[in-house]
Each structure stands twice: as C-alpha cells, then as structure tokens.
Amino acid sequence: MADNPGPDQPPDAGSVGINAQSLYCPVCRQAQPVRSKLLLVLPVGEKFGYYCAVCGAELGAKLEKSQAAGH
Fold first, then answer.
1. Collapsing DSSP states into helix, strand and coil, what is residue 21?
2. Which of 34, 48, 56, 71 is most buried (CB neighbours < 10 A)?
3. 35 lies in a domain?
4. Of the candidates 27, 11, 19, the residue with the CA atom closest to the CA atom of residue 59
C-alpha cells in the first residue's frame, strides 16, 4: 500500500504527466492551442512533439519516461 499516496501525500513526481495545452507560436506571434504527436518509442520512454493547432509549426517536444525504465 506504500505505492498509493494518501489524500495528505502528493503523488510521486514520476507518475504525474504534464501536457501542454497551449504554447507560444513564433509564426502566429501569440499563444495557440497545441496538438501532440507521438514521434518515437524509445527504450527509456516515448518522445512527443508539440505542434501549433492553427499553422502547424513545431513548437517543442517532450520525453515521457516509461514506468519500466526507472526500475
């Protein structure tokens, strides 16, 4: 039961996924909603790319580590 944090304990930082909903787009010159796309599946996790929902410009990427990679 130690793996499940109680209501008074914050969840493990490794189990919380953060996804961007909007990012600044240099082409549109303002914050725009984003679409995420799975780019690569790696042994350490999955790499996602963020793209502007308006013009399609690439705005960034993130590596989401898999649960098995840390153990």
1. coil
2. 34
3. yes
4. 27
Q: What is the pTM of this model?
A: 0.67
Which residue range forms the structural domain that includes residue 35? Answer: 22-70
Is position 38 within any domain?
yes
Number of structural domains, the chain?
1
Distance CA 59, CA 31 (A): 10
Residue 17 lies inside a defined structural domain of this protein:
no
Q: How far apart are CA 45 and CA 26, in angstroms?
A: 28
- Does residue 44 belong to any structural domain of this protein? yes
CA–CA–CA angle 59, 62, 67 (5° rounding): 160
- List pLDDT tens digits, range 40-52: 999 999 999 999 9
Condensed to tens digits (0 to 9), the pLDDT of residues 5-52 reads: 444 544 444 445 678 899 999 999 999 999 999 999 999 999 999 999
